[in-house]
Write a structure and sequence with these properties.
Order of helices and strands: HHHHHEEHEEHEEHEEEEHEHH
Helix content: 25-40%
Number of helices: 11
CATH topology of the largest domain: BirA Bifunctional Protein, domain 2
Length: about 350
């Protein structure tokens, strides 16, 4: 029995001294495997004297069970220690960028919207928002767009299956003007609002996409006239394009919701095959505008005899393309990180007229 005590002590020491899982597995095979030391001794019991066989068998079985239990416990302890060491070695500071050479960039659309808000904010405008899915009244009727107007047809407008309380099919708004209607319905004049947001039309090519961004402005007050409109938009263009003396002109046009209506052009030069905003021999159309039609005011419950004002609207993608030299409208929506790295803007640089719009 002294031999069994020595064997037990030796195996327990070996289990406790195993430094890793590989060493412990080698010990298990050497002690308990098919050709392990304990297994071989069990096989040799038949050669022992009959009076010793029973005691030796019980002793070997006890050692086998004890060593197996110790190995299992040691395996768990070494496994936990290995996992803990791995976790310590793989610690990541999640506040650092995934790739130190990469940096997030502000999308040109977001940058342009921020620039527009900064400019008109200095003029006292506030930002208004509204739903992307509109009813017929706010998207068309209230804006003096009659039922037979081409803008209502399926080739221009996305209709959805849902219907409003009057049974009319709802639409994806074709402009952000419905927000102006909602703003006038819910408050008393005067108003000075800009409405940036997504709009939707059934059109797609190099210069049109089914979803695009617009910003529309509204000023309603007493004694507002066309001169206020021209001064406001001239100041905006000179601030946005960062060209203090950019030439502007207004051409007569027609929109159902304004009367009189105009389109605004800015001067440019195309010499050398390029495009430069400023004094030159050519013009670029950038927005539509006009005095708010009295019928629109009446549809919103505003007294057109007392209040009057002007409205304007422009495509955000278009003015971003002109300012930043982006040739294809579709690239705004392709989610190409290389394009964003080239045309994007540094984060945390908030546009302002004091610090610079596109610094």
């Amino acid at each position: 029995m002294t031999d069994l005590d020595d064997l037990r002590t030796r195996l327990i020491g070996a289990v406790e001294g195993a430094e890793d899982l590989d060493a412990l597995e080698a010990l298990r095979v050497g002690a308990l495997g098919k050709k392990g030391e304990l297994t071989e001794r069990m096989k040799a019991l038949g050669k022992a004297a009959p009076e010793e066989r029973k005691a030796l068998g019980q002793g070997l079985n006890a050692i086998k069970d004890e060593i197996a239990g110790l190995i299992e416990a040691r395996t768990a302890a070494l496994g936990d220690a290995a996992l803990e060491a791995r976790l310590r070695g793989e610690t990541v500071d999640v506040t650092l960028p995934v790739r130190p050479e990469s940096q997030g960039r502000i999308h040109p659309i977001s940058q342009t919207i921020d620039e527009i808000v900064a400019i008109f904010g200095e003029m006292g405008f506030t930002v208004a928002e509204g739903p992307d899915i509109e009813d017929d009244f706010h998207n068309f009727t209230a804006l003096n767009i009659p039922p037979e107007h081409p803008a209502r047809q399926m080739h221009d407008t996305f209709y959805v299956e849902e219907r409003d309380a009057a049974g009319e099919r709802l639409v994806l708004r074709t402009h952000t003007s419905p927000v102006q209607i909602r703003a006038m319905e819910g408050a008393e004049p005067p108003f000075r609002l800009i409405v940036p947001g997504r709009t939707y039309r059934s059109d797609s090519d190099m210069t049109h996409t089914p979803m695009f961004h617009q910003v529309e402005g509204l000023v309603i007050g007493e004694a507002i006239h066309m001169g206020h409109l021209k001064g406001c938009l001239t100041d905006f263009c000179r601030a946005y394009f960062e060209v203090p003396d950019v030439p502007v002109r207004f051409r007569p046009s027609h929109f159902p919701f304004t009367e009189p209506s105009a389109e605004m052009d800015i001067g440019c030069s195309r010499k050398g095959g390029g495009l430069r905003i400023g004094a030159g021999d050519d013009w670029l159309e950038i927005l539509g505008c006009g005095m708010v039609h009295p019928k629109v005011l009446a549809n919103c419950g505003v007294d057109a005899e007392r209040w009057q004002g002007f409205a304007f609207g422009m495509g955000i993608e278009r003015i971003a393309m002109l300012k930043y030299g982006i040739p294809d409208l579709r690239t705004f929506f392709e989610a190409d990180i290389r394009w964003l790295r080239h045309y994007g803007f540094a984060p945390l640089e908030t546009p302002s007229l004091i610090g610079g719009l596109s610094a």
